[in-house]
Amino acid sequence: MARRMALFGGSFNPPGLHHLRIAEVLAREFDEVRIVPCGPRPDKPEVNSVPSAFRAALCDLTFGCLKGAVVDLFDLEQDTFTRNHALEERYQAEAEVWHVVGADWIEGGAQHRSAIHTGWEKGPELWQRSRFAILTRPGHTMDAADLPPNHVLIPLEIPGSSTLIRDSLLHRRAADHLLTKKAHRYINRYGLYRGTNPATWSRGTLEDLKCMIQTDPRNGKSVNWRDKFQPHVNEDAPDFILTLGGDGAMLRCIREYWRKRLPFFGVNAGHVGFLMNAPDQVFEQSFPPTEVIFRQLPQIYIEMETETGEIIQDYAFNDAWVERSTSQSAWLEVKVNGISRLPKLVSDGALVSTAAGSTAYARAMGASPLLADTPAWLLVGSNVLEPAHWKSALLSSDTSVEILNLECDKRPTTAYVDGVSQGAVRSIRARLSRAAAVELVFLANRDMAEKIAGIQFMR
């Protein structure tokens, strides 16, 4: 029997408890619930009221713990609105697709006047051949003649709407009963849906919250510290992720767990520890700390073309780069927003870096570190021979970069994402992600901004 997938699309702006309850009902009826938050829609301007990175995080926080549910961030990442027929085509190789619709969407179906017929692209064709999971309300009368040929009726009574949630938040009314606890906490942290531009950092507390612990097994100090924090652990329902180790351990932890959308609090058992908190400051106060700063930091969205033409997608929190694979210098072309800015870059390689990663390899290559909340990122050359004296460029947050190998056969290049080798590539395309972001937490008296100031003034 084919796997059955319930395709649950919507703006989810924001996703509320009513959406989660619907997904729970669907999860009992289907093998998988594929949740698809949409990108910009001309008929729903309110979709753009909050940046997509926040909407993506809220969807992961709301649905992430539901077994059988998968949140697809494609539309948010690509800033697109994929029509229902295209979504069906995307998933039909994985499972038998069922479109989830409300009963009001099929009214008038007998006369070909339903919202599916008139509002969906290729609606009449989908009506005849596609499958529909129709959510019905108690007491709502439907005409059997309006039903599509392939359907299943799923009765449920779940009140709530995103409009009600937005209105409550805008007018400072209580909304905790309309949202999951983690989503509500996140919305309050960054001031979402308040009628103002959301913040990218805020002051707050971890007091009384529980964590999951990640240690670097190769670092004896971090392993020994684990027992100190054991009373504050709840691996089944954590509120934040405690990382013990160095910056490398934090990067590995971020790569594995960022989709949990939990804040990362690091305790440095390594060397530099730019992404971490100093152990002496952590241990001299109660834990979890009562005064902290949360910073939401973007990742880089990367598409890499391998030597065989395959496109690989990935995210980088710190940086991504290409470098020569042999003793010969790499010959690269660098395009910025589609314009060839460096037609021939002769160097050991080229790197793109977030503000958070600007203190790492970008700094070692000669670039100045950026403040954590700088709405910009970096393009940096490594041991540049040509053009002479070029080292780096500051990029605006909406910039896209493409780095192409001009001589793949003679001068092969290898790609790296946060230090992890991706193998030989012909090119990489990069931009700041619209959907992937990470929350780092710092003690209030030693925030990331203070660390960068220390680097800039050599103290």
From TrEMBL:
Statement: the UniProt record of this protein carries the keyword Transferase: yes
Protein name: nicotinate-nucleotide adenylyltransferase
EC assignment: 2.7.7.18
Catalytic activity annotation: nicotinate beta-D-ribonucleotide + ATP + H(+) = deamido-NAD(+) + diphosphate; NAD(+) + ATP = ADP + NADP(+) + H(+)
Lineage: Bacteria, Pseudomonadati, Verrucomicrobiota, Verrucomicrobiia, Verrucomicrobiales
Organism of origin: Roseimicrobium gellanilyticum
Stated family: Belongs to the NadD family.
Pathway(s): Cofactor biosynthesis; NAD(+) biosynthesis; deamido-NAD(+) from nicotinate D-ribonucleotide: step 1/1
CDD domains, per the entry: NMNAT (cd02165)
The UniProt record lists the keyword Nucleotidyltransferase: yes
Single Gene Ontology MF annotation: NAD binding
Biological function: Catalyzes the reversible adenylation of nicotinate mononucleotide (NaMN) to nicotinic acid adenine dinucleotide (NaAD).
Every Cytidyltransferase-like domain range: 7-166
Annotated keywords: ATP-binding, Kinase, NAD, NADP, Nucleotide-binding, Nucleotidyltransferase, Pyridine nucleotide biosynthesis, Transferase
A GO biological process held by the record: NADP+ biosynthetic process
Pfam family, one: CTP_transf_like
